[in-house]
Design brief:
Largest sheet: 5 strands, antiparallel
Number of domains: 4
Keywords: Membrane, Transmembrane, Transmembrane helix
Number of helices: 28
Strand order of the largest sheet: 12-15-20-17-18
InterPro entries: Uncharacterised_YfhO (IPR018580)
Pfam families: YfhO
Helix content: 40-55%
Strand content: 15-25%
Radius of gyration: 32 Å
Structural class: alpha+beta
Distance between the termini: 50 Å
Shape: globular
């Protein structure tokens, strides 16, 4: 065994270096930065901390708790298809690593997965160099390290699902090289299919690159002298045909995921696509060279910056020398130059950039395809270095001249992410590489080692500088929040095993529901169905392309969307004398806490990150909203940081309704009017009084502000620009009803500060649609002051109106709807079964399940046609009386995708057998011809 290991190391040591040098380089940087478990920092930053970490918890839950959530989940807003989310975020085969870690150590799992993927990228690239380009020794390891630790990798390690592309791209290209040279496409199809399965979005960019790379490699194919042009032409046509065929088969292999994802995209991300092209440049072309310097990165480069092109001095100088290397034909080098120009233009011209990003401009993380450009430079840089004998002296002269010019340009332009020390470092590394080139590395056995060490140091320094310029979520705050949420949700679910939704006045991320595994409304993902944010935006909630924050609920929306339980931060604002005392429910919740919070075993204690009591006390929740309506709910319990409430008005997920709801259309920027229309329609317009009654403020106080009226809006201007300015609106409620204020969408976060009775009024930051602010509840005869403090010189308030919700008629309407509510007998994420008693004047069963073709419904065992209400919600026609209703969800195109995957696998097998037999016959014919001559 020991001898076998020694033999393996002796043969594979360059590949081992390609894996372990990036691994230990990044591990040392994490240790130096105090990343958990070596400190209190984590890798959670930007989207990794705001999206992905919650999806990884959901990933574990799918495998260990409920596999049906692979297809559908009610943790995704009010419910949604999950295939698109899996395909975009979670189908990487390397994510299986999460199953080896407990839920409490999910942050550590992310760190380990990041290390693994970066190291495998180096190994994969090294394997390509060895198998396809005869790579060996320290030079193979040096270029592999440059690939694994290039600027793109370091900057995008937080987009952990994209790192799969760095692993699979070399393997795909290795298969393509084999297809061109040997007419064998098996490996190419398999690895392309795996990449499309792992992340179709980045795989799309790889597919575009493969077209250009295939053409480039065809131009480099050399033929023996005297071979006929017909033979060449036949060979080229065969290669093209095989390339197209095996590309299609590779895509077909991932059909089980791609077809359902395509359907999902049509409802979400792709629905925003516009085939309009902007032919302007994003920035002056010379500025791109700034990203070739060590540590050329800061936080501002993430939302909008230049393409990440840092690959290290060895690879960059070698790539420049490629164009002067006579070993390669002029035709090949010219093709490479044309392709490189196309890449450079694509990383600047907006129209080409849009094509690379699947016809949508990226939001944050610009030029996400730049890794294929780096790959192209690294491959040809390595090929050029391996044929150093073909280089001309002019190549090193050009390299020195360009280094001087580019460094002078970057120094004079004063880029805010490049300091003088970085320029000096880059020049030193580059000059040493050029010096080694001049003395010819092949003539000195120590030079490859020197180049390897120099490259390892340079790439490590770049990684350290880049990562030091980001801020991260600390481990303690994540652990305190995670354990607190888990405890509260576990207790609620233990107490009440029915279906309901839970919301909060605070949040860590908009995907807390995935982290703690509960149905909710708030959500954020790139695969969010467009209709749901459109619905909630019209209802007065903060929404955007891909997200929804349930921070502006009224008593009506809380009831309609089955928000049965609410959690708030511990704030005396919610403690009123009118609040109902803790009762039976409180006792039940305490018992649930006792059952779900058992003393952990020794092993469990070791697996849970420890947090000091002082840290726990210091931790503060991130408030999302101020919600006086909670005073109208029943407080049923509390934790160290939160109060827990029950909503007595929550409707079930399905209930009888008038079919008038089918005639209600979404109204833009009139949320109260829409809510009024919905409740009137649900109750068949039988209520003669208004639910939402327009009210007036008693008085308005202006401080350093003048008022002028315009069409449908009021304009408030500062009198003295540098002085404080505010408008205070006062009123005294005559009842304990809830009061709401509509705020126009033209008000931005930076324009104003909001206060209620002198205390900051918390409101989620996005102001895209008209918002509904809850400013009073249970405040009879209390004088309330809502103050708007101006941060800008002028603000415009459109449709700024106060409304009172008539609690008497509202609660009566809710009780009428509850009478026709579903009594759930059994439920899961993909199925529901229950009984309903439909009342008179109720012609449909209204649900708060998003409409989707995948839902099928049976009433008393008979399949029933479904309809759509409010452009978004599932509705079922139904007759008066008692019925048994069954809901079942089947992912659209999943069956067809499965058939496509099986068929593609069979065709790959048949194609491989056919060409293997054909090649064998051709080989035998050549042998016979040679033996006869």
């Amino acid at each position: 065994m020991q001898k076998t290991m020694q033999t393996f190391i002796q043969k594979q040591w360059p590949l081992l270096l390609a894996f372990f040098v990036p691994f230990f380089t990044m591990a040392l940087i994490y240790i130096f930065q105090g990343v958990y478990p070596f400190g209190n920092d984590s890798l959670l930053t930007v989207d990794l901390g705001q999206q992905y970490i919650d999806f990884y918890s959901y990933y574990r839950q799918t495998f260990f708790d409920d596999p049906t959530t692979f297809f559908y989940s009610f943790s995704k807003a009010i419910g949604g298809d999950m295939m698109g989310l899996w395909a975009y975020y979670l189908t990487s085969p390397f994510n299986l690593l999460f199953l080896l870690f407990p839920h409490t150590q999910i942050v550590l799992a992310v760190t380990c997965l990041t290390l693994l993927k970066i190291s495998l990228a180096g190994l994969s690239f090294g394997y390509l160099l060895k198998k396809s380009f005869s790579g060996t020794g320290f030079i193979l390891a040096a270029f592999s390290i440059s690939y694994a630790l290039m600027g793109y990798t370091i900057v995008n390690q937080l987009n952990i699902m994209w790192l799969d592309s760095l692993i699979f791209l070399p393997l795909i290209v290795m298969g393509l090289e084999q297809l061109i040279a040997e007419k064998k496409g098996l490996l190419y199809s398999i690895f392309l299919g795996l990449m499309l399965f792992a992340n179709y979005y980045i795989a799309y960019m790889i597919c575009l690159f493969l077209v250009g790379y295939f053409i480039f490699r065809l131009t480099g194919v050399s033929y023996p002298k005297g071979i006929r042009w017909k033979t060449k032409f036949t060979n080229i046509l065969t290669s093209i045909g095989l390339f197209i065929w095996h590309s299609l088969l590779g895509a077909g292999l991932a059909g089980v995921l791609l077809l359902p994802t395509f359907h999902s995209l049509m409802e979400s991300k792709a629905s925003y696509t516009k085939f309009e092209f902007d032919w302007e440049l994003a920035y002056p072309f010379p500025e791109m060279v700034s990203k070739l310097f060590v540590g050329a990165f800061n936080f501002d480069q993430m939302p909008s910056g230049y393409p990440n092109l840092f690959i290290g001095s060895l690879a960059l100088v070698s790539f420049l020398c490629y164009f002067f290397n006579r070993y390669f034909s002029k035709k090949e080098r010219l093709t490479a130059l044309v392709l490189m120009i196309l890449f450079i233009v694509s990383m600047n011209l907006e129209a080409f950039n849009k094509i690379w990003h699947a016809m949508q401009y990226p939001i944050w993380y610009p030029y996400r395809f730049s890794f294929v450009v780096c790959f192209f430079m690294l491959i040809n840089g390595f090929r050029s270095f391996m044929h150093y004998e073909g280089m001309r002296p002019i190549s090193t002269l050009v390299s020195m001249l360009l280094t001087a010019l580019v460094s002078f340009y970057v120094y004079t332009e004063k880029f805010d992410f490049i300091y003088t020390e970085q320029i000096i470092l880059t020049v030193l590394f580059t000059c040493m590489i050029i010096f080694f080139f001049i003395i010819k590395p092949q003539q000195y056995t120590w030079l490859p080692i020197a180049l390897f060490l120099l490259t390892a140091v340079e790439m490590g320094v770049n990684a350290q500088i880049d990562l030091s310029r980001l801020s991260y979520v600390d481990q303690d705050s994540f652990t305190v929040y995670q354990t607190g949420m888990d405890a509260s949700i576990d207790a609620i679910q233990d107490m009440d095993d029915d279906f309901y939704r839970v919301e909060k006045t605070f949040l860590r991320t908009k995907n807390d529901s995935f982290q703690a595994n509960y149905p909710s409304v708030t959500h954020f993902s790139s695969t969010f169905e467009r209709t749901i944010p459109a619905l909630f935006g019209s209802l007065g909630f903060p929404v955007g392309d891909g997200f929804l924050a349930y921070s502006n609920g009224t008593l009506l929306t809380d009831a309609l969307f089955d928000i049965q339980y609410y959690m708030s931060e511990k704030n005396d604002f919610y403690l009123e004398e009118t609040n109902q005392p803790l009762g039976v429910k409180s006792t039940r919740l305490k018992e649930s806490f006792s059952r779900t919070q058992q003393v952990p075993s020794l092993i469990d204690s070791l697996l849970i990150p420890s947090v000091s009591n002082a840290k726990k006390k210091e931790f503060e929740l991130n408030d999302m909203q101020t919600k006086p309506d909670l005073r109208s709910y029943t407080q049923i319990g509390e934790t160290d940081k939160t109060f827990i409430y029950e909503n007595p008005n929550a409707l079930p997920i399905a209930f009888g309704s008038s079919d008038s709801i089918l005639n209600v259309s979404l109204i833009e920027d009139q949320p109260i009017q829409l809510q009024e229309a919905i409740l009137q329609a649900l109750t068949d317009n039988r209520v003669t009084e208004q639910f939402f009654v327009p009210s007036d403020f008693d008085s308005t106080v202006y401080q350093n502000v003048t008022l002028s009226d315009a069409l449908n809006e009021k304009i408030y201007r500062k009198q003295v620009l540098n002085n404080d300015a505010s408008v205070s609106f006062q009123f005294t409620p005559e009842t304990n009803d809830s009061y709401y204020l509509t705020l126009s969408p033209n008000i931005k976060e930076e324009d104003v500060n909001l206060f209620l009775n002198g205390e900051p009024f918390t409101q989620y930051e996005t102001y895209r649609d008209q918002l509904v602010l809850n400013i009073a509840s249970q405040n009879k005869e209390d004088t309330l002051t809502f103050k708007i403090e101006l941060e800008e010189s002028t603000i415009r308030l459109k449709d700024f109106q106060l409304y009172r919700l008539n609690s008497t008629v509202f609660e009566s309407a809710i009780q009428t709807l509850k009478a026709g509510g579903i009594a759930i007998e059994e439920y899961g994420n993909t199925s529901f079964k229950g009984t309903v008693d439909i009342q008179q004047n109720q012609e449909v069963l209204m649900t708060t399940i998003p409409y989707n073709e995948g839902w099928s419904v049976k009433v008393d065992g008979v399949p029933t046609q479904t309809k759509k209400a409010l452009d978004s919600l599932l509705v079922i026609p139904i007759a008066e009386g008692k019925h048994v209703v069954e809901f079942n969800y089947t992912t659209p195109l999943f069956f067809e995708g499965t058939i496509l995957t099986i068929l593609s696998a069979m065709l790959i097998f048949v194609t491989s057998l056919f060409f293997k037999k054909t090649l064998k016959v051709e080989t035998n014919e050549c042998i016979n011809k040679n033996s006869s001559t």
